[in-house]
Specification:
This protein is of the alpha+beta class. Helices cover 45% and strands 15% of the residues. The chain is built from 21 helices and 22 strands. Strand 20 and strand 21 form a beta hairpin. The longest helix is centred in the first third of the chain and has 34 residues. The two termini are 53 Å apart.
Length: 639
């Protein structure tokens, strides 16, 4: 044991403690750490302050992610090249699309994948493949490139509709010159600003000429003569019919070409698609809830949608379908022609709301029969972290923090979100997940923003779809009302490249008017609002009728500068990370119990790893979002 002279021990202790005392003296306050964290400095948060463990975990995930990103880059590049070498243009375009998205996520030069995409484009064996490649190229280019490739993708898709494997003329069933004229008249009255007739005519002409110029499409449609020039869209349709176009195809394609010439978001919904369109925007599924999947030669029941007739009746995943009965029609799986089986089943499953469908299945050797009723089943507006045994969502992050995810905006999404949050005990802060949310009902997003914003503007909108000024004494539609449920509740918003339209409005408005922090990726960039306008003739238009900006006047649309939303805390995700997140969320949100009370067995889900390529085990964006919310709360509590 060493011997120290008198006084040396105290001196040694002082020298030993000096660095530690200096460290303590210089250590930042929790408030300073919170500010550093919100500026993206996870290293400081991992070294000091109340979130060292969580920040260290996030840093470890970032380090692991960097390694995996390099593996994903090399793997995706090799896969794309391998598919091209084998002559598989379709798989090559899938791989190059992932590569282009990967380049965006990592901020790397997309040139290697753009070159491969161009090669895939040259080798594509049909319009469907070209449409996919152009759609992928659109996401990796600047605004002008996006417009160019988006247009080429739309035109290639139009060609593919009339080749083997495409939708065919059936999508245009019931469309004639009168309906086309009514659609264009509605567009002239409803569009953002009165459209130039020459622009409409040019778009319609370009679409029909492209169709007639493709030998396979013209042969499939019976077009035998050149498309004549015309002074109006109606005359163009008449000339196309004289050239051999079926009237329904000439009419619907001319209108769609004219609308696309205005912008990429204005669409016609023809009679054949009206039912599905109405159900989608009403936020309901109409049917019995019977879903099937193939396993070898067998047809098995998939887990029914929660709340559907099939779920309530007690159909289970894995039940082997034996037969169906509906309206006096009987179908037996045994003895049916496999090539025609799916079509027969689909036709029999369809039916009017309120009608019955009887399903016969084999379960563990026992034959069972279930009587189902076709009806509307609401689509879930709000999701949480995971389901419990009773199928309800868990939202709790702990310590008064809660997580809610909104997949899209339907007409009463705001009501359901506020109902969920209003019922949560001890609410201190919200992590709002808008990743993958492509928008929807703008009014629902505005109403939800109002729940957080204590007065003042929620957005700005110009165009023919903007509501008129209110009558005296009434609050304008885009002004917040005071005294709403979530005023003063801190919120952090998760966004990604697919966050668009109404979801961008909500995120941006919450940042400008409620102090929200945005975490994730640069958003899509859509600031054009569409009105949904049905017509008595049985069709509808989704027509751009407004241009939307944030309360500050900042534009969102790609046509502006700047566009979209740049997060306060940038944390990108690669395609494989996004896939892993989607699979984890699907597993967490899977139905836990059937309507008869039986628990749902665990079944193998889609593999996340591709050819052994490992993936990030955790949702890094979610982890950073939770840390940001903790930091915001500390700063507010410390005021």
């Amino acid at each position: 044991m060493p011997h120290h002279p008198p006084g040396a021990t105290a001196l040694l202790a002082a020298r030993t403690l000096a660095p530690l005392l200096a460290l303590v003296a210089c250590a930042p306050s929790d408030r300073e750490v919170a500010h550093a964290l919100l500026a993206g400095d996870l290293e400081r948060a991992a070294a000091y302050g109340p979130w060292q463990e969580q920040a260290a975990t996030a840093l470890a995930l970032r380090a692991r992610r960097a390694t995996l990103n390099e593996e994903e880059w090399r793997w995706t590049l090799a896969k794309a090249q391998d598919h091209l070498d084998k002559g598989d243009a379709h798989q090559a375009q899938v791989a190059t699309g992932s590569g282009l998205a990967l380049a965006v996520a990592l901020g790397r030069d997309p040139a290697p994948f753009e070159a491969l995409a161009q090669t895939a484009l040259d080798r594509c064996d049909g319009p469907a493949c070209r449409a996919e490649v152009h759609a992928q190229l659109a996401l990796s280019t600047d605004r002008e490139g996006w417009r160019l490739h988006s247009g080429q993708a739309r035109e290639a898709a139009a060609l593919g509709r009339y080749l083997p494997g495409g939708e065919g003329p059936g999508r245009c069933a019931g469309v004639d010159r009168a309906m086309a004229g009514a659609a264009l008249a509605m567009a002239a009255e409803e569009y953002l600003a009165p459209p130039d007739p020459a622009t409409l005519l040019a778009g319609a002409t370009d679409r029909l000429r492209r169709l007639s110029a493709d030998p396979r499409v013209s042969a499939a449609l019976g077009v035998g003569a050149p498309l004549p020039s015309a002074a109006t869209v109606d005359a163009l349709i008449a000339g196309a019919v004289d050239a051999g176009f079926p009237e329904q195809v000439a009419a619907c394609e001319a209108v769609e070409g004219a609308l696309f010439a205005l912008d990429p978001y204005s669409l016609a919904i023809w009679p054949a698609a009206m039912t599905g369109w109405e159900q989608h925007h009403a936020g309901v599924r109409v049917g019995a809830g019977l879903r099937l999947y193939h396993q070898g030669d067998s047809l098995l029941v998939d887990t029914p949608p929660l709340g559907s007739s099939a779920w309530e009746a007690g159909l289970h995943r894995g039940d082997a379908l034996l037969g169906l009965e509906s309206e006096g029609q009987v179908f037996a799986v045994a003895g049916s022609e496999e090539a025609d089986r799916d079509r027969q089943i689909e036709a029999l499953v369809q039916g009017a709301p309120g009608s019955s469908l009887t399903v016969s299945v084999l379960r563990e050797g026992a034959r069972l029969r279930f009587s189902l009723t076709r009806r509307a089943t609401p689509v879930e507006r709000v999701q949480g972290l995971e389901r419990g045994p009773d199928n309800t969502w868990r939202y709790d992050l702990g310590d008064g923090l809660f997580y809610v995810q909104i997949p899209s905006f339907l007409e009463d999404t705001d009501v359901q979100v506020t109902e969920v949050l209003g019922a949560l005990p001890g609410l201190r802060g919200v992590l709002l997940d808008l990743r993958g949310n492509g928008g929807g009902d703008l009014s629902a997003a505005v109403e939800l923003a109002d729940a957080w914003v204590a007065g003042g503007p929620l957005l700005q909108m110009v165009g023919r779809g903007a509501p008129p000024p209110p009558e005296d004494g009434l609050v304008p539609w885009n002004e917040a009302l005071t005294g709403q449920l979530l005023e003063g509740v801190p919120v952090v918003v998760l966004v990604d490249h697919d966050t668009a339209s109404a979801a961008e409005v909500l995120a941006g408005t919450l940042r400008e008017r409620a102090g929200a922090v945005i975490v994730g990726e640069h958003t899509w960039g859509k600031g054009m609002a569409q009105g949904l306008r049905p017509h008595p003739l049985g069709f509808a238009l989704q027509i751009t009728n407004g241009s939307v900006t944030l309360p500050s006047g900042r534009p969102l649309d790609r046509a502006g500068d700047p566009w979209g939303l740049t997060p306060d805390l940038l944390q990108s995700a690669t395609p494989l990370e996004a896939l892993a997140r989607t699979v984890r969320h699907r597993r967490a949100g899977a139905v836990r119990a059937y309507g008869d009370g039986a628990p749902v067995r665990s079944f193998a889900e889609d593999a996340v790893a591709l050819d052994g390529l490992p993936v990030l085990e955790e949702d890094l964006q979610l982890q950073v979002g939770i840390l940001a919310l903790e930091a915001v709360l500390l700063l507010l509590d410390d005021r």
